[in-house]
Amino acid sequence: xxxxxxxxxxxxxxxxxxxxxxxxxxxxxxxxxxxxxxxxxxxxxxxxxxxxxxxxxxxxxxxxxxxxxxxxxxxxxxxxxxxxxxxxxxxxxxxxxxxxxxxxxxxxxxxxxxxxxxxxxxxxxxxxxxxxxxxxxxxxxxxxxxxxxxxxxxxxxxxxxxxxxxxxxxxxxxxxxxxxxxxxxxxxxxxxxxxxxxxxxxxxxxxxxxxxxxxxxxxxxxxxxxxxxxxxxxxxxxxxxxxxxxxxxxxxxxxxxxxxxxxxxxxxxxxxxxxxxxxxxxxxxxxxxxxxxxxxxxxxxxxxxxxxxxxxxxxxxxxxxxxxxxxxxxxxxxxxxxxxxxxxxxxxxxxxxxxxxxxxxxxxxxxxxxxxxxxxxxxxxxxxxxxxxxxxxxxxxxxxxxxxxxxxxxxxxxxxxxxxxxxxxxxxxxxxxxxxxxxxxxxxxxxxxxxxxxxxxxxxxxxxxxxxxxxxxxxxxxxxxxxxxxxxxxxxxxxxxxxxxxxxxxxxxx
Length: 510
What we know:
Blueprint: H1 2-25, H2 27-41, H3 46-50, H4 59-65, H5 71-82, E1 96-101, E2 108-113, H6 115-136, E3 146-149, E4 154-157, E5 160-166, H7 168-174, E6 184-185, H8 188-191, H9 196-209, E7 213-217, H10 220-234, E8 248-251, H11 257-266, E9 273-280, E10 283-287, E11 296-298, E12 304-310, E13 322-323, E14 332-339, E15 346-357, E16 360-367, E17 371-372, E18 379-380, H12 381-395, E19 399-407, E20 416-423, H13 430-444, H14 446-452, E21 462-465, H15 470-477, H16 495-502
Parallel strand pairs: 1-5, 3-6, 3-7, 7-8, 8-9, 20-21
Antiparallel strand pairs: 1-2, 4-5, 9-10, 10-11, 11-16, 12-13, 12-14, 14-15, 15-16, 17-18, 19-20
Helix pairs in contact: 1-6, 9-10, 12-13, 13-14
């Protein structure tokens, strides 16, 4: 029976792939129609009336009439929506909110996910990814075998229990079409457990008994924890001995390259597919269409209207955004979105660079603010600045400068963060400072706290105390001296940290 289902859906996915090809060939028309539809649909909302959506008849007028916003700008409107108010940013009442890492002033942010956005963007993006997979791998068996996905948890909003929130993966699992549920592991009760240690254990016990898992999805960090436990339970040396039909891993959200060698050890299969996606709380934007390259195909018919500003001009008051058809290859852009959830000219925070414009393909190059997101923790420089300030105040310590980089998983060790800190005085109890700093950072960033839960996905941060003057010496050697030159706070690779450590003989960390 399952073979029949898979064969039938393969035909549907072929027609869907044809639609993707049509969209790729007609992006300008599709994006223009999409903007017109978004404005018409939201014209009678609070936001639509305030900015006269009904009177906007061109992109240029939209750009000139509606301001660029960040999360803090619309946070009061989102709070009204979460308390149950209708027709604020989008028609009707929005029940779902994707919980994401906070901005400069918030521990977490809550992104509205309307029914239309969930269907047109997140779910359709998932279907498009599967259609591309079946096009590239005609023997795919997503709808014949099982698919293992580790998602988040759903919560009730304390000020209005009719409102629900969780990370976007949890929302997508909760709203999964019925046709996909028989092919999903784990069961829904386990999927939404809030106790992560028990949740991972239960998923591992279930998955260890399955022999027909064909795809895996989720953040690499949690998958590595799960894989190790499955191998412990089964006594096998790799996952292909447990799941011989394994074909694909769908991933996104963090840079996968540091994990690739580990995954190859878990899954020693030359033709195994690693399918990257660009699926954020705000939308499902892009997916890998060619497994020989690492760029992503932008999805232009998914309820998202795109604009871009060159990153170097983002904070220039005279800079103007441009629509998709005006972008150029090789330029770093800050991405701006308008969506069917009521995000209007919203500065996403990601920076992208187009590798092609026919079709539109891009790669994610960073964030508009300093950040570190090696394990899905999404720590911003505002978080680390505040955490180190709180730790210093509590312990009576002064810090001159610092930088942070990831410590990637080793063969028998967990990943985490390595802090290089120049203290103003000799610190007698560095381990205590590390404990306090780690606790402060957890209190400020919920994603970091989740990854640090019982040391399951990330170990406690490590600190290396640098001799005074180390950072200035490094800046000097880099030719980067001057009143406005600053030490980079956060990085997603170890290039800067390793350069600095070469000046110090790599002292022991704690």
